[in-house]
Design goal:
The complex is a heterodimer. Chain A is mainly α. In chain A, helix 1 packs across helix 2. The mean pLDDT of chain A is about 90. Chain B has one domain: 2-Layer Sandwich (Alpha-D-Glucose-1,6-Bisphosphate, Chain A, domain 4). Chain B has a seven-stranded antiparallel sheet. In chain B, a hairpin with a 7-residue loop joins strand 5 and strand 6. The longest helix of chain B is centred in the C-terminal third of the chain and has 37 residues. Chain B starts with a strand and ends in a 24-residue tail after the last helix. Classes of the chains: A mainly alpha, B alpha+beta. At the A-B interface, helix 1 and helix 2 of A face helix 1, strand 2, strand 3, strand 4 and strand 7 of B. Chain A: It holds the Pfam family UPF0203. Chain A: It catalyses: a 1,2-diacyl-sn-glycero-3-phosphate(in) = a 1,2-diacyl-sn-glycero-3-phosphate(out).
Protein backbone atom coordinates (compact mmCIF):
# COMPACT_ATOMS: atom_id res chain seq x y z
CA UNK A 1 0.00 0.00 0.00
CA UNK A 2 1.30 3.43 -0.86
CA UNK A 3 2.04 6.20 1.56
CA UNK A 4 0.58 9.66 1.02
CA UNK A 5 4.20 10.75 0.67
CA UNK A 6 5.49 9.18 -2.50
CA UNK A 7 9.00 8.86 -1.12
CA UNK A 8 7.83 7.35 2.15
CA UNK A 9 6.37 4.07 0.93
CA UNK A 10 9.52 2.03 1.55
CA UNK A 11 9.92 3.45 5.06
CA UNK A 12 6.25 2.69 5.64
CA UNK A 13 6.72 -0.92 4.56
CA UNK A 14 9.63 -1.43 6.92
CA UNK A 15 7.73 0.05 9.82
CA UNK A 16 4.55 -1.91 9.01
CA UNK A 17 6.49 -5.18 8.92
CA UNK A 18 8.03 -4.46 12.30
CA UNK A 19 4.70 -3.41 13.81
CA UNK A 20 2.73 -6.39 12.46
CA UNK A 21 5.29 -8.80 13.93
CA UNK A 22 5.34 -7.01 17.29
CA UNK A 23 1.55 -6.77 17.40
CA UNK A 24 0.91 -10.48 16.78
CA UNK A 25 3.86 -11.91 18.72
CA UNK A 26 4.12 -9.50 21.64
CA UNK A 27 1.25 -7.11 22.19
CA UNK A 28 -1.61 -9.60 21.67
CA UNK A 29 0.11 -12.06 24.02
CA UNK A 30 0.32 -9.46 26.76
CA UNK A 31 4.07 -9.09 26.43
CA UNK A 32 4.90 -5.59 27.64
CA UNK A 33 8.52 -5.49 26.54
CA UNK A 34 9.74 -2.36 24.79
CA UNK A 35 8.49 -1.49 21.33
CA UNK A 36 11.24 -2.48 18.85
CA UNK A 37 9.83 -0.31 16.09
CA UNK A 38 10.27 3.20 17.47
CA UNK A 39 13.33 4.07 15.39
CA UNK A 40 11.72 2.83 12.18
CA UNK A 41 8.57 4.75 13.08
CA UNK A 42 10.50 7.93 13.67
CA UNK A 43 12.11 7.85 10.21
CA UNK A 44 8.79 7.03 8.55
CA UNK A 45 6.90 9.63 10.62
CA UNK A 46 9.32 12.42 9.69
CA UNK A 47 8.85 11.63 6.01
CA UNK A 48 5.05 11.51 6.21
CA UNK A 49 4.72 14.72 8.22
CA UNK A 50 6.67 16.53 5.52
CA UNK A 51 4.33 15.20 2.83
CA UNK A 52 1.28 16.16 4.89
CA UNK A 53 2.53 19.73 5.18
CA UNK A 54 3.36 19.93 1.49
CA UNK A 55 -0.07 18.66 0.51
CA UNK A 56 -1.78 20.83 3.09
CA UNK A 57 -3.73 17.93 4.58
CA UNK A 58 -5.86 19.31 7.43
CA UNK A 59 -4.96 17.01 10.30
CA UNK A 60 -3.36 19.54 12.62
CA UNK A 61 -4.97 19.74 16.07
CA UNK A 62 -7.60 17.08 15.38
CA UNK A 63 -8.50 15.53 18.72
CA UNK A 64 -8.17 11.77 19.17
CA UNK A 65 -11.56 10.17 18.51
CA UNK A 66 -12.74 13.72 17.83
CA UNK A 67 -16.33 13.21 16.60
CA UNK A 68 -17.02 10.57 19.25
CA UNK A 69 -18.23 13.08 21.79
CA UNK A 70 -21.12 14.08 19.60
CA UNK A 71 -22.32 10.55 19.06
CA UNK A 72 -24.42 8.60 21.52
CA UNK A 73 -22.58 5.67 23.05
CA UNK A 74 -24.20 2.38 22.09
CA UNK B 1 -31.36 15.27 10.45
CA UNK B 2 -28.75 13.13 8.74
CA UNK B 3 -28.72 9.44 7.98
CA UNK B 4 -27.84 6.60 10.28
CA UNK B 5 -26.57 3.12 9.47
CA UNK B 6 -26.17 0.16 11.76
CA UNK B 7 -25.10 -3.41 11.14
CA UNK B 8 -23.96 -6.32 13.22
CA UNK B 9 -22.10 -9.30 11.79
CA UNK B 10 -20.44 -12.34 13.29
CA UNK B 11 -17.44 -13.77 11.52
CA UNK B 12 -15.91 -17.11 12.29
CA UNK B 13 -12.39 -15.95 13.00
CA UNK B 14 -10.67 -15.48 16.33
CA UNK B 15 -10.45 -11.90 17.57
CA UNK B 16 -6.64 -11.91 17.56
CA UNK B 17 -6.65 -12.88 13.89
CA UNK B 18 -9.25 -10.28 13.01
CA UNK B 19 -7.17 -7.58 14.64
CA UNK B 20 -3.98 -8.69 12.95
CA UNK B 21 -5.88 -8.59 9.64
CA UNK B 22 -7.33 -5.17 10.50
CA UNK B 23 -3.85 -3.62 10.21
CA UNK B 24 -3.04 -5.51 7.03
CA UNK B 25 -6.25 -5.20 5.04
CA UNK B 26 -4.86 -2.74 2.47
CA UNK B 27 -4.38 -3.25 -0.35
CA UNK B 28 -6.96 -5.86 -1.28
CA UNK B 29 -8.94 -6.55 -4.47
CA UNK B 30 -11.96 -4.63 -3.11
CA UNK B 31 -10.07 -1.51 -2.03
CA UNK B 32 -9.15 0.10 -5.33
CA UNK B 33 -10.81 3.27 -4.07
CA UNK B 34 -8.28 3.48 -1.21
CA UNK B 35 -5.21 5.27 -2.56
CA UNK B 36 -2.90 5.65 0.43
CA UNK B 37 -2.65 4.47 4.03
CA UNK B 38 -0.35 5.86 6.72
CA UNK B 39 0.10 5.46 10.45
CA UNK B 40 0.43 8.90 12.02
CA UNK B 41 0.53 7.97 15.66
CA UNK B 42 0.76 4.93 17.95
CA UNK B 43 0.97 4.59 21.67
CA UNK B 44 0.63 1.85 24.26
CA UNK B 45 -1.00 3.31 27.36
CA UNK B 46 -0.01 2.34 30.93
CA UNK B 47 -3.16 0.19 31.09
CA UNK B 48 -2.01 -1.69 28.00
CA UNK B 49 -4.37 -0.26 25.43
CA UNK B 50 -3.03 0.45 21.95
CA UNK B 51 -4.00 3.81 20.50
CA UNK B 52 -3.45 4.40 16.80
CA UNK B 53 -4.20 7.07 14.25
CA UNK B 54 -4.17 6.34 10.53
CA UNK B 55 -4.59 8.63 7.57
CA UNK B 56 -6.29 7.23 4.49
CA UNK B 57 -6.78 8.82 1.09
CA UNK B 58 -9.76 7.64 -0.89
CA UNK B 59 -11.14 8.53 -4.30
CA UNK B 60 -14.11 10.86 -4.28
CA UNK B 61 -16.59 9.21 -6.61
CA UNK B 62 -19.70 11.32 -7.02
CA UNK B 63 -22.91 10.72 -8.99
CA UNK B 64 -23.16 12.77 -12.16
CA UNK B 65 -25.67 15.23 -10.76
CA UNK B 66 -23.28 16.08 -7.93
CA UNK B 67 -20.34 16.43 -10.34
CA UNK B 68 -22.31 19.09 -12.22
CA UNK B 69 -23.33 20.98 -9.11
CA UNK B 70 -19.97 20.75 -7.31
CA UNK B 71 -17.28 20.72 -10.01
CA UNK B 72 -14.56 21.83 -7.58
CA UNK B 73 -14.95 18.68 -5.49
CA UNK B 74 -13.51 16.51 -8.22
CA UNK B 75 -10.07 17.95 -7.84
CA UNK B 76 -9.23 16.49 -4.46
CA UNK B 77 -9.42 13.04 -2.94
CA UNK B 78 -11.03 12.49 0.43
CA UNK B 79 -8.75 12.44 3.47
CA UNK B 80 -9.94 10.23 6.29
CA UNK B 81 -8.64 9.92 9.82
CA UNK B 82 -9.14 6.59 11.53
CA UNK B 83 -8.52 6.52 15.28
CA UNK B 84 -8.61 3.21 17.11
CA UNK B 85 -8.23 1.70 20.54
CA UNK B 86 -7.30 -1.94 21.11
CA UNK B 87 -8.27 -3.05 24.60
CA UNK B 88 -6.81 -6.42 25.47
CA UNK B 89 -8.68 -6.48 28.77
CA UNK B 90 -12.16 -6.61 27.26
CA UNK B 91 -11.04 -8.00 23.88
CA UNK B 92 -12.28 -5.09 21.84
CA UNK B 93 -11.05 -2.90 19.04
CA UNK B 94 -13.01 0.31 18.58
CA UNK B 95 -12.32 2.50 15.58
CA UNK B 96 -13.72 5.84 14.56
CA UNK B 97 -13.15 7.18 11.05
CA UNK B 98 -14.26 10.43 9.52
CA UNK B 99 -13.35 12.65 6.58
CA UNK B 100 -11.38 15.81 7.34
CA UNK B 101 -11.96 17.47 3.98
CA UNK B 102 -15.12 17.90 1.89
CA UNK B 103 -16.82 17.90 5.27
CA UNK B 104 -19.29 20.68 4.47
CA UNK B 105 -20.39 18.82 1.37
CA UNK B 106 -20.75 15.61 3.37
CA UNK B 107 -19.46 14.29 6.66
CA UNK B 108 -19.42 10.54 7.25
CA UNK B 109 -18.48 9.28 10.70
CA UNK B 110 -18.03 5.52 11.00
CA UNK B 111 -17.65 3.66 14.24
CA UNK B 112 -16.64 -0.02 14.26
CA UNK B 113 -16.33 -2.34 17.19
CA UNK B 114 -14.62 -5.71 16.86
CA UNK B 115 -15.47 -7.78 19.90
CA UNK B 116 -14.06 -11.13 20.89
CA UNK B 117 -16.50 -13.20 22.89
CA UNK B 118 -15.16 -15.15 25.88
CA UNK B 119 -17.59 -18.01 25.47
CA UNK B 120 -17.23 -18.19 21.68
CA UNK B 121 -13.49 -17.84 21.08
CA UNK B 122 -13.53 -18.56 17.35
CA UNK B 123 -16.09 -15.90 16.62
CA UNK B 124 -15.75 -12.15 16.42
CA UNK B 125 -18.66 -9.76 16.44
CA UNK B 126 -18.34 -6.73 14.19
CA UNK B 127 -20.62 -3.81 14.86
CA UNK B 128 -20.59 -1.01 12.32
CA UNK B 129 -22.36 2.28 12.74
CA UNK B 130 -22.29 5.39 10.55
CA UNK B 131 -23.70 8.87 10.56
CA UNK B 132 -23.98 10.77 7.27
CA UNK B 133 -24.71 14.48 7.25
CA UNK B 134 -24.43 17.37 4.85
CA UNK B 135 -24.26 21.09 5.43
CA UNK B 136 -25.23 22.15 1.92
CA UNK B 137 -28.35 24.28 2.04
CA UNK B 138 -31.16 22.88 -0.10
CA UNK B 139 -29.32 19.73 -1.20
CA UNK B 140 -28.55 18.01 2.08
CA UNK B 141 -31.16 15.29 1.60
CA UNK B 142 -29.98 13.97 -1.81
CA UNK B 143 -26.35 14.32 -0.69
CA UNK B 144 -27.04 12.34 2.48
CA UNK B 145 -28.91 9.67 0.55
CA UNK B 146 -26.06 9.35 -1.92
CA UNK B 147 -23.62 9.24 0.98
CA UNK B 148 -25.50 6.48 2.73
CA UNK B 149 -25.74 4.45 -0.48
CA UNK B 150 -22.02 4.84 -1.10
CA UNK B 151 -21.30 3.90 2.49
CA UNK B 152 -23.36 0.71 2.19
CA UNK B 153 -21.46 -0.25 -0.94
CA UNK B 154 -18.10 0.51 0.67
CA UNK B 155 -19.10 -1.43 3.75
CA UNK B 156 -19.60 -4.59 1.68
CA UNK B 157 -16.15 -4.07 0.14
CA UNK B 158 -14.68 -3.47 3.59
CA UNK B 159 -15.98 -6.81 4.85
CA UNK B 160 -14.74 -8.63 1.76
CA UNK B 161 -11.39 -6.89 2.12
CA UNK B 162 -11.11 -7.96 5.75
CA UNK B 163 -12.03 -11.54 4.89
CA UNK B 164 -9.43 -11.47 2.12
CA UNK B 165 -6.76 -10.31 4.57
CA UNK B 166 -7.82 -12.98 7.06
CA UNK B 167 -7.62 -15.65 4.40
CA UNK B 168 -4.09 -14.53 3.46
CA UNK B 169 -3.00 -14.63 7.09
CA UNK B 170 -4.38 -18.11 7.53
CA UNK B 171 -2.63 -19.35 4.38
CA UNK B 172 0.63 -17.76 5.51
CA UNK B 173 0.42 -19.36 8.94
CA UNK B 174 -0.38 -22.75 7.39
CA UNK B 175 2.79 -22.48 5.29
CA UNK B 176 4.89 -21.44 8.28
CA UNK B 177 3.77 -24.41 10.33
CA UNK B 178 4.47 -26.83 7.48
CA UNK B 179 0.81 -27.64 7.13
CA UNK B 180 0.48 -29.23 3.71
CA UNK B 181 -3.28 -29.56 3.68
CA UNK B 182 -4.98 -26.34 2.59
CA UNK B 183 -6.97 -25.13 5.58
CA UNK B 184 -10.66 -25.21 4.89
CA UNK B 185 -11.95 -21.72 4.49
CA UNK B 186 -13.74 -21.10 7.74
CA UNK B 187 -15.03 -17.63 7.16
CA UNK B 188 -18.72 -17.34 7.57
CA UNK B 189 -20.34 -13.98 7.47
CA UNK B 190 -23.99 -13.20 7.91
CA UNK B 191 -24.96 -9.68 7.05
CA UNK B 192 -28.12 -7.75 6.32
CA UNK B 193 -29.27 -7.69 2.70
CA UNK B 194 -27.38 -5.09 0.70
CA UNK B 195 -28.62 -2.97 -2.17
CA UNK B 196 -25.36 -2.05 -3.88
CA UNK B 197 -25.58 1.12 -5.89
CA UNK B 198 -22.61 2.11 -7.98
CA UNK B 199 -21.70 5.71 -8.54
CA UNK B 200 -18.86 6.49 -10.93
Amino acid sequence: MNSVGEGCTELKREYDQCFNRWFAEKFLKGDRSADPCSELFHKYHTCVQKAIKEKDIPIEGVEFMGPNREKADS
Amino acid sequence: MGKHFFSETDIKSAWEQVLTAFWQRYPNPYSTHVLTEDVLFREVTPDNRLLSRRLLTKTNRLPRWAERVFPGNLSRSVYIIEDSVVDLGNRSLTSLAWNVNHAKFMLVVERCVFMGEQDRPVWTRITREAWVSSGVFGLSRPIQEFGLARFRSNQVKAMRGLEHALSNLQKASATCHGDSAEKHKNLNSTSETQKPQQYI
